[in-house]
Amino acid sequence: xxxxTVPEIIKAKGQRxxxxxxxxxxxxxxxVDQCDVDIILVGDSLAMTVLGQEDTLSVTxxxxxxxxxxxxxxxxxxxxxxxxxxxxxxxSLDQAVANAGRLLKEARAGAVKVEGGSAILPQVRxxxxxxxxxxxxxxxxxxxxxxxxxxxxQGRGEAGEKILQEAVRLEEAGCFSMVLEAVxxxxxxxxxxxxxxxxxxxxxxxxxxxxxxxINDLLGMNxxxxxxxxxxxxxxxxxxxxxxxxxxxxxxxxxxxxxxxSYKDD
Length: 266
Ligand code: KIV
Known about the structure:
eight-stranded parallel beta barrel; binds 3-methyl-2-oxobutanoic acid; 8 strands
């Protein structure tokens, strides 16, 4: 089976909805790939979901290469998109191209994702010129959390015009698709109809060309915090806790291992 390609993602616009989901390791990526999800995003949400960090700022290129490679090794259908970490593309065009190139060469990603608008247009152009497919990300951009002052809805009122203009500029710079995070549905709808490339929403309403969720949220593994836009399709936290508790009890009272879980003496 061949992998989903950039032209297929662009062609899907107006034809069918796109489905994207995060994964950070080979076990979860195999499930996502088998379920025919178009794009696996190895997001820098890795920081909170896997690395126990409080935000995405400390994720390194080495972290992203390590986890993206684990995902791409077992993926046969989904396109693998890797997030470029904070400060791996903002400092210079050379660094942006070199780091994006590493994610394709060393981690076998099919594309990279970058956060931001006007400030990173030269980087987007340089990466695209080097043959690297780039996904944009506007609205709530968690790498700018220090500036934004919190994880809040972006683009209400006049601020929405700026996001719309930046979306158009990112498309002109060569992005093949764009994540819209935590923006009002009306704005997401206007951006979606203004672009030729697909938009992929998270907390951006139903009119985007596709949707993305963090897999830990979808599976109900994160019990500390549930943003309004998250739908839990399972309660894995409950299932995991129950299984571990039963295992512990059975070890303590000697019920595990039973004869059926032990080798025969001869
Ligand atoms: O890092 C991530 O998981 C993301 C998604 C929320 C779009 O960027």
